[in-house]
Specification:
Elements (H helix, E strand, L loop, with lengths): L6 E3 L6 H10 L3 E3 L3 H20 L27 H14 L3 E4 L2 H15 L8 H12 L3 E2 L2 E3 L8 H11 E2 L17 E4 L2 E4 H8 L4 E2 L4 H6 L3 H31 L9 H5 L4 H14 L22 H4 L1 H23 L7 E2 L11 E2 L7 H29 L24 H17 L21 H36 L9 H12 L18 H13 L1 H11 L27
Parallel strand pairs: 1-2, 6-9
Antiparallel strand pairs: 3-5, 4-7, 7-8, 10-11
Length: 584
């Protein structure tokens, strides 16, 4: 794949696609030309305050510059200007207190990217060298070790962001000269899979650690970037998952000889819900040349009554609101990627009648992201909920319209378990999601001596959303594997009748059968019990990568394929609220 050109940060709004490019594909970044000029006024104001302190000027308390933090802010104002830089350093040391497993590199890279975008808005008063250091970390693949637990989602993601800042920054200069930089106080980072000190990691990358100065510490720590990164990655994967689950649902509908009446356009137009109409249109496109499904706008079904179980006929009514919710979540997340979220914000353009340009507020409060991640968790769990019901139906010989029990044509009934246990696995995964989908945003535990008396828990919401998406990717992969088996059995059963699966489903079946299991063996039709986990692993990768979507769409757009409906959303690209997604 040809490398994309360097992404200019500050040259227009950053998109979810930009974030994915940087986080997963290591796209390189640089400042847009106007960024330095945009950042200068707020930094100049900070340096003017420090200069006044150095000159002995009486300086009022200014939060995070010459005061403590949280409930300590009103205790006293520091008179020594050197304390402003020391305050930043000690804040980073004190806040690097996370526990748990270290998060994936893509989460760290996404976090750094969002923090850069936020700081370049020009409201943070941070020195330019700090943001350049973050860019260098991305471009030279420095991977700080960031534990998953610690953030409350207000006052920002202090603890995880501190684990990044401690790698980037060095102690403040004294009298303009560097001081000893103890590796034990430099955090941790990964080099070739092993954890080293921040000092070693930065030296290995050839990046100087930046001596911290006034306001830098809180500007690096006090924001929603970590929670936003988790939610953004979950959203991207959820969009790909929904598109893939629509295809696997169609495969099951075909395998179970479903009815097309449930997807007639006029039926969905009568309700008027945007997402439902789009999903039904996509299903009609995917089914348009299948002869396993009976009944459509122009012809009566050949069986009566033409009603399937809800897990088949209500896919548009379930996946439609999932789509609409993901679109809504996308709008929130793309806005947050571009937001200035630290505190206080330095706003130099305030009137001259107000000398204090540092404005204390609450942009660090991540309630938007907490809600977004919670909504995402709920709707993705529903993808799994309805999908698992189709798996159960495929396995059950009393419900699957003539397919063999457990989808295996065994020589002796009962000798082979077939696909009995993948449905168990799906049930376990969906049950886990039902617990994880309990909203984190409704929880709050006061901190900082009750100064921070309401928090969002957005990081917990984002972590749970990522886990839920991962779980349901496995559930949809199981449907892909089982529906492939079922469609092959159905074609054997209907041989000679002229009935066949549709073009899109045939492409998905060919993709599955052409992809080796993770142990290297063929992923062929199951005629007797075989080890299934390598097969599930292989098809799970097809789900997460978007390969199923690409295969189906390529088949439909081929010269002998099915023309897309004019009202169908046929793109393989996940869509956000501002329609900026792009699949890899």
């Amino acid at each position: 794949m040809t490398a994309k050109p360097v992404l200019l940060i500050g040259d227009g709004a950053a998109t979810l696609t930009d974030l994915i490019d940087v986080a997963r594909d290591r796209r390189r970044v640089a400042f847009a030309p106007e960024v330095a000029e945009r950042m200068a006024p707020s930094r100049d104001w900070i340096e003017g305050i420090i200069g006044g302190m150095e000159a002995g000027k009486d300086t009022p308390p200014i939060y995070s510059i010459n005061t403590g933090f949280g409930s300590l802010a009103g205790r006293q104002a520091f008179e020594d200007p050197a304390d402003a830089a020391e305050l930043s350093r000690r804040l980073i040391l004190a806040d690097a207190a996370g526990v748990g497993r270290n998060v994936d590199e893509e989460v760290v890279r996404a976090t750094i990217f969002i923090r850069i975008v936020s700081l370049t808005r020009g409201y943070s008063g941070v020195q330019f060298a700090i943001v350049q250091g973050l860019i260098d970390m991305l471009n030279k693949d420095v991977f700080p070790a960031v534990p998953e637990y610690g953030s409350l989602g207000a006052s920002g993601d202090l603890i995880p962001l501190a684990h990044i800042a401690i790698v980037l920054t060095a102690p403040p200069n004294i009298d303009g000269k560097p001081v000893d930089d103890d590796p034990l106080d430099s955090g941790e980072a990964f080099i070739d899979g092993r954890i080293v000190s921040g000092v070693e990691a930065m030296a290995h990358a050839g990046i100087p650690r930046i001596p911290i100065s006034a306001k830098d510490g809180l500007a690096l720590l006090n924001g929603t970037s970590f929670s936003a990164a988790q939610a953004a990655l979950a959203l991207w994967d959820a969009q790909v998952l929904l598109d893939t689950a629509t295809i696997t649902a169609v495969m099951s509908i075909e395998a179970l000889r479903g009815f097309g009446d449930a997807f007639i356009a006029e039926l969905h137009d009568a309700r008027g819900q945007k997402g439902q109409i789009a999903i039904a249109s996509r299903i009609r496109q995917l089914l348009s040349d299948s002869t396993f499904v009976t009944g459509d706008r122009d012809s009566n079904p050949d069986r009566q009554p033409p009603q399937d179980a809800y897990s088949l006929r209500c896919v548009p009514q379930v996946f439609g609101p999932v789509k609409d919710t993901l679109d809504f979540v996308g709008g929130i997340i793309e806005t947050e990627i571009n937001a200035a979220t630290d505190n206080p914000l330095i706003i130099p353009e305030l009137p001259s009648s107000r000398s204090l340009k540092a404005v204390s507020g609450g942009n660090f409060h991540a309630e938007y992201l907490a809600f977004a991640a919670d909504f995402l968790s709920i709707v993705v769990t529903e993808i799994g909920n309805i999908t698992e019901r189709r798996l159960f139906r495929l396995d059950d010989g009393t419900l699957n319209r003539g397919l063999p029990d457990m989808l295996v044509a065994s020589e002796k009934v009962g000798l082979d378990c077939g696909f009995m246990l993948p449905q168990y696995l799906a049930a376990a995964l969906v049950s886990d999601c039902k617990t994880l989908a309990h909203p984190d945003s409704v929880d709050s535990i006061p901190t900082s001596a009750n100064q921070e008396d309401h928090v969002s828990m957005a990081n917990n919401a984002g972590r749970h959303a990522r886990t839920i998406v991962s779980n349901i990717q496995q559930v949809v992969a199981i449907e892909l594997l089982m529906a492939t088996q079922a469609l092959e059995l159905r074609e054997i059963e209907r041989e000679g009748t002229g009935q066949t699966m549709g073009t899109a489903s045939r492409a998905a079946v060919a993709l599955v059968r052409g992809t080796p299991a993770s142990d290297g063996r063929p992923n062929g039709h199951v005629t007797k019990d075989a080890v299934l986990y390598p097969r599930i692993r292989a098809v799970a990768e097809l789900v997460t990568s978007g390969a199923v979507i690409r295969a189906a769409d390529a088949a439909l757009s081929a010269p002998n394929g099915v023309e897309a409906e004019t009202d169908a959303e046929t793109t393989t690209e996940p869509r956000t609220g501002s329609d900026t997604g792009a699949a890899k």
